[in-house]
């Protein structure tokens, strides 16, 4: 069953990424909004009850503590998706494998001189994926109604490329091949798409 957990370690990591101008309650409310829940009778930072915004989400409280401040080793609170919400996720076989995204992104970036902005890469990748995008891949994801599921998958593929050293992570909004990424793109062009798809 899908679960969103915010452990003390994850909370600390999230807080390290927050700009000094944002306060804790604003950050927590944004996270709760992404999870599809809200706080009633209080604020996200303390007090109040976490309740689902829609009937297809169940909030499971922590064993003890507030979830994020739960003692070490104790499970945090969880947000659990209902059966109906899970059914709305991409059906098996309708999704494009991450390796296909990586292949297309490598070739696209190589063709464009090794880098592109996010604004430019999105429509180009959509065009390249073409008929492979169908069904629920074109639907928006529940946590962000602005982005279709395929674009969310593409961003996860980009992160994998960053993790593997194929794309640099230095510039916000820029997808830039590293030297290793350029070499892999050339090899991918010679070898063809993963699994024989195109």
Shape: globular
Relative helix content: 40-55%
Question: What is the CATH topology classification name of the largest domain?
Answer: Arc Repressor Mutant, subunit A
> What is the makeup of the main sheet?
3 strands, antiparallel
Query: Strand content of the residues, in percent?
Result: 15-25%
Distance between the termini: 33 Å
Structural class: alpha+beta
Notable characteristics:
about 200 residues; alpha+beta; Arc Repressor Mutant, subunit A; 2 domains; 3-stranded antiparallel β-sheet; two-stranded antiparallel sheet; 7 helices; about 40% helix
What does this structure look like?
The structure is a single chain. The longest helix has 15 residues, at 149-163. This protein is an alpha+beta fold and 198 residues long. The strands form four sheets. The protein has a three-stranded antiparallel β-sheet with strand order 1-5-4. Strands 2-3 form a two-stranded antiparallel ribbon. The chain has helices spanning 8-17, 24-35, 83-87, 98-111, 118-129, 149-163, 179-191; strands spanning 3-5, 37-40, 49-52, 57-60, 78-81, 115-117, 140-141, 144-148, 174-176. It has two domains: 3-87, no CATH class; 98-196, Arc Repressor Mutant, subunit A.
List the helices and strands and how they pair.
Layout: E1 3-5, H1 8-17, H2 24-35, E2 37-40, E3 49-52, E4 57-60, E5 78-81, H3 83-87, H4 98-111, E6 115-117, H5 118-129, E7 140-141, E8 144-148, H6 149-163, E9 174-176, H7 179-191
Antiparallel strand pairs: 1-5, 2-3, 4-5, 6-9, 7-8
Helix pairs in contact: 4-5, 4-6, 4-7
């Amino acid at each position: 069953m899908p679960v969103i957990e915010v452990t003390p370690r994850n909370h600390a990591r999230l807080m390290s990424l927050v700009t000094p101008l944002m306060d804790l309650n604003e950050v927590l409310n944004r996270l709760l909004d992404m999870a599809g829940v809200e706080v009633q009778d209080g604020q996200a930072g303390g007090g109040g009850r976490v309740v689902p915004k829609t009937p297809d989400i169940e909030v499971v409280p922590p064993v003890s503590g507030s979830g994020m401040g739960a003692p070490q080793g104790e499970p945090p609170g969880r947000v659990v998706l209902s059966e109906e919400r899970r059914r709305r996720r991409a059906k098996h076989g309708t999704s494009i494998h991450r390796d296909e995204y990586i292949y297309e992104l490598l070739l696209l970036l190589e063709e464009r001189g090794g880098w592109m902005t996010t604004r430019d890469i999105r429509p180009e990748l959509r065009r390249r994926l073409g008929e492979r995008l169908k069904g629920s891949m074109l639907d928006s994801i529940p946590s962000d109604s602005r982005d279709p599921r395929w674009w969310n998958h593409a961003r996860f593929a980009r992160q994998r490329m960053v993790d593997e050293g194929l794309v640099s992570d230095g510039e916000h909004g820029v997808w830039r091949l590293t030297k290793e990424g350029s070499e892999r793109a050339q090899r991918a062009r010679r070898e063809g798409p993963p699994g024989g798809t195109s």
